[in-house]
Amino acid sequence: MTEQTNGAAAQGEAGAQFSLQRIYVRDLSFEAPKSPEIFRQEWQPNVALDLNTKQKTLDGDFYEVVLTLSVTVKTGEEVAFIAEVQQAGIFLIKGLDAQAMSHTLGAFCPNILFPYAREALDSLVTRGSFPALMLSPVNFDALYAQELARLQQAGEAASQSQH
Predict the structure, then answer these.
(1) Does this UniProt record's set of keywords contain Cell membrane (predicted)?
(2) How far, in Å, CA of 62 to CA of 105, rounded?
(3) How far does the chain reach from its first CA to its final CA, in angstroms?
(4) Rounded to whole angstroms, how far apart are CA atoms 160 and 15?
(5) Would residue 106 count as lying in a domain?
(6) What residues are paired with 90 via a beta bridge?
(7) 6, part of any domain
(8) CA-to-CA distance for 88 and 43, rounded, in angstroms?
(9) CA 46 → CA 25, 131, 135, distances in Å?
(10) What is the number of structural domains in the chain?
(11) What is the pLDDT of residue 107?
(12) CATH code, domain carrying 90
């Protein structure tokens, strides 16, 4: 029984493999166009968050995934600040079928990067002398599923318009 278990584990190790190689900030940007006047106004922030991911194949089984968080905060009609971080990671991924690879790159990797991006963004905002920006957790699996559904609908609409 032990030999069979060890054989199965070795076979599993030869199959799928996932390893985080490096996490880094690829780009960082902060702008407070109305400072210092904005600090003298009543603070009633309206936060708009834009979130994007992109993937790039590197050499062999290495992939770069970049998670971009862009935040625009207004108080009233005035832009208080615009902050953006591109948090990236290099991942070794092999032995996955196309569907599992797509999910890993589109949801699993961004989920790993998000806490780092959120911390970098929060640090950037506080260095600009604004209150901490504590972003809520993001469900990347749900976003990935929504994107797949959107692409499927777009594909169906395109095929119907061709007939």
Answers:
(1) no
(2) 11
(3) 58
(4) 40
(5) yes
(6) 22, 64
(7) no
(8) 32
(9) 26, 13, 13
(10) 1
(11) 96
(12) 3.10.420.10
pLDDT value of position 153: 85
C-alpha dihedral sign at 27, 93, 139, 134: negative
Which candidate, 86, 69, 76, places its Cα nearest to that of 133? 69
Mean pLDDT estimate for the chain: 88
- Cα(46)–Cα(75) distance, integer angstroms: 6
pLDDT(11) > 60: no
Position 152 in a domain: no
Whether residue 13 has pLDDT greater than 80? no
Which structural domain, as residue segments, surrounds residue 94? 17-144
pLDDT at 134: 86
Q: Which of 46, 81, 50 is nearest to 68 (CA)?
A: 50
